[in-house]
């Protein structure tokens, strides 16, 4: 093989290496071996911001002559009589109620019911089979525009039903074109940023295109090219593809886009964020200029606007909801301001509450691949079904993970941001941001995995002082969605994200300067709760739960206007015999109707984290003092280790973690032990 003067990596096999201006980098599994990035000048210079060089496929731009192109039809809209009879005031009132904002010339009125779309029977039957009641806002306004053959920009939050907003018009568009012959390229092309989104769109195409016998394929990296190439060679009407893998097939000559007349850019803002703009431009250059183009995005940044102005003609812009960055209002958002070392214990308590909600799925978002594997392993060791997904997973592993998560065998998915966009799984009730993302935009896309299709959902976020720079943006997102705001978060936002300040619960709500993890030497923790400050959780549970340990504990997974100054906490007090007992309080009131019994002894299986109190110091003599007891500092003060998620799950037999009364037997490490008679810290 010829030697290539490359900065890093080896060229992929099978590519065209004759052009000396091409730079081959490490293959990107998600996008067919092409690493996204900006356009280069052929000098092999590294990209700014520390990114590796990108690979931009070299494709000759066709010289389009509209006079020689075969004509095609793209206007199939027949307005319903009900739509024509509505007054301008009625139309404006409907758009206002549905939070629809439109911009453009000669825009059609929205439909309010499915029958007003005048869909053909093969589509109407599928809609009735799915049991949809009424179209969503983006569908109501988007279908008349798309069926009219107009270019369109749709800006809507995740879970708004935008996939059907362009799939159903695409099906009608294809059925009005000449039949595709073997070897010809697709009629409809849908570009997406990730393989997961591509597969989900293919599922929708399969459901709504089967009755009209439309052929389709899905092109993405990380999967064998052979089956994808065979589909393209046989001919498919619809192609759903990531930019890199599609460019690979275009350059090899496996397919072409000469027959493409319907182009969709889904999650355009995400594709630009990932650096796919050069690939998108190369692909659009291969499509005839009189095509119909629909661009969909959750946000409307300058980069997306520039792309729309360049490649869309006389387009109509449709905004659903606020024109600013906004979250789905069907999602209850809970933000817990805490310390980094408290998150595992809080996650354990949270998962216990969630599992009591019945058959519901949960996504736990973390910041790194290594942490995703670690958290998933610990959750499984606690008896919960959990799977893990991140960028290093192969396509077979991803398919297995999604299959286990969809069918409910593993109701908890631990994932990095690879699953934040486009993942559409039914039954996701909870989203937990174990690690808060780097931007509010990513936060909105994360929590958008729940609350889809007009369903209700709940999101939970652990917000630490290390995330303080995002406090103001997060408060803005919460206010726009009419959510209750944690006072600690508001104070952090007012402080301007000062990373040197820490809201210490022990200071009675005051801000104290100092290291984030500073704790008094005598602090004791149990299950993520300490006796020197708040329990770092806040709840909307009624006070009727405050009687008796065997009663249901207040839910930690709720939100309301009741951010307590002194939420439920667990303290330990020393009795006259030198032993410790629990005194659980809420807002200063005892949780017990009667004091707990005086108990002695301890469980042999908990000695690795529950310790005997240190013996009294010996009388001062001329001899050297004895060494400090194990697990203590140089002053002889016992240091109680923090409980991790694994430790918390291993003591679920205790009354404090499972709601069991003190005189019931504990089930630890697979063995039933005698009733717990004392717990000494």
TrEMBL record:
It comes from the Eukaryota. The keyword ATP-binding applies. Keywords: ATP-binding, Helicase, Hydrolase, Nucleotide-binding. Residues 600-610 have a biased composition (Polar residues). It comes from Gryllus longicercus. Its EC number is 3.6.4.13. Residues 112-140 form the DEAD-box RNA helicase Q domain. This is RNA helicase. Residues 143-318 form the Helicase ATP-binding domain.
């Amino acid at each position: 093989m010829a030697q290539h003067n490359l900065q890093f990596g080896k060229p992929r096999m099978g590519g065209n290496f004759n052009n000396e201006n091409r730079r081959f980098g490490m293959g990107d599994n998600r996008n067919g071996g092409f690493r996204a990035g900006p356009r280069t000048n052929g000098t092999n210079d590294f990209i700014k911001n520390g990114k590796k060089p990108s690979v931009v496929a070299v494709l000759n731009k066709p010289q389009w002559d509209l006079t020689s192109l075969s004509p095609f039809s793209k206007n199939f809209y027949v307005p319903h009589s009900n739509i024509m009879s509505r007054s301008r005031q009625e139309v404006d009132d409907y758009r206002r109620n549905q939070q629809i904002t439109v911009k453009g010339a000669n825009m059609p009125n929205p439909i309010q019911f499915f029958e007003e779309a005048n869909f053909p029977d093969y589509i109407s039957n599928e809609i009735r089979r799915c049991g949809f009641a009424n179209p969503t806002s983006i569908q109501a306004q988007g279908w008349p525009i798309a069926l009219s053959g107009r270019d369109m920009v749709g800006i809507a939050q995740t879970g708004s039903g935008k996939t059907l907003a362009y799939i159903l018009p695409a099906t009608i568009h294809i059925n009005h074109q000449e039949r595709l012959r073997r070897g010809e390229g697709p009629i409809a092309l849908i570009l997406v940023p990730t393989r997961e989104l591509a597969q989900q769109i293919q599922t929708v195409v399969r459901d709504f295109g089967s009755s009209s016998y439309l052929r389709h394929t899905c092109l993405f990296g990380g999967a064998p090219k052979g089956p994808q190439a065979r589909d393209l060679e046989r001919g498919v009407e619809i192609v759903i593809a990531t930019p890199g893998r599609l460019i690979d097939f275009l350059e090899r000559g496996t397919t072409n886009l000469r027959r493409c007349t319907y182009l969709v850019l889904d999650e355009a803002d995400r594709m630009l964020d990932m650096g796919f703009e050069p690939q998108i431009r190369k692909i659009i250059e291969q499509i005839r200029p009189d095509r119909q183009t629909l661009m969909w995005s959750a946000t409307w940044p300058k980069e997306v606007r520039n792309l729309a102005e360049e490649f869309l003609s006389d387009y109509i812009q449709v905004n659903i909801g606020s024109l600013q960055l906004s979250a789905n209002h069907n999602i209850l958002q809970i933000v817990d301001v805490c310390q980094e070392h408290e998150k595992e214990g809080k996650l354990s308590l949270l998962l216990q509450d969630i599992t009591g909600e019945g058959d519901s799925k949960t996504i736990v978002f973390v910041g790194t691949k290594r942490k995703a594997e670690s958290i998933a392993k610990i959750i499984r060791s606690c008896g919960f079904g959990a799977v893990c997904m991140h960028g290093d997973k192969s396509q077979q592993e991803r398919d297995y993970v999604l299959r286990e998560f969809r069918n409910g065998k593993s109701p908890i998915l631990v994932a990095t941001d690879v699953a934040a966009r486009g993942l559409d799984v039914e039954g996701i009730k909870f989203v937990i941001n174990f690690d808060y993302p780097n931007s509010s935009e990513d936060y909105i896309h994360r929590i958008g995995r729940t609350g889809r299709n007009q369903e209700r959902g709940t999101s939970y976020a652990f917000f630490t002082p290390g995330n303080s720079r995002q406090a103001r943006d997060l408060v803005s997102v919460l206010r726009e969605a009419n959510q209750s705001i944690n006072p600690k978060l508001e104070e952090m936002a007012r402080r301007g994200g000062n990373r040197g300040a820490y809201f210490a619960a022990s200071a009675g709500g005051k801000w104290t300067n100092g290291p984030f993890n500073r704790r008094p030497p005598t602090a004791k923790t149990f299950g993520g709760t300490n006796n020197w400050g708040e329990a770092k959780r806040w709840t909307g549970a009624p006070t009727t739960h405050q009687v008796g340990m065997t009663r249901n504990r207040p839910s930690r997974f709720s939100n309301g206007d009741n951010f307590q100054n002194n939420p439920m906490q667990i303290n330990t007090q020393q009795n006259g015999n030198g032993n410790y007992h629990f005194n659980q309080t809420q807002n200063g009131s005892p949780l017990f109707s009667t004091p707990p019994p005086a108990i002695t002894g301890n469980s042999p299986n908990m000695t690795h984290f529950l310790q005997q109190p240190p013996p009294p110091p010996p009388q001062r003599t001329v001899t050297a003092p004895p060494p400090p007891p194990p697990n203590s500092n140089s002053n002889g003060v016992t240091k109680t280790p923090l409980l991790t998620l694994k430790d918390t799950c291993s003591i679920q037999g205790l009354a404090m973690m499972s709601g069991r009364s003190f005189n019931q037997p504990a089930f630890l490490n697979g063995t039933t032990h005698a009733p717990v008679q004392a717990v000494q810290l």
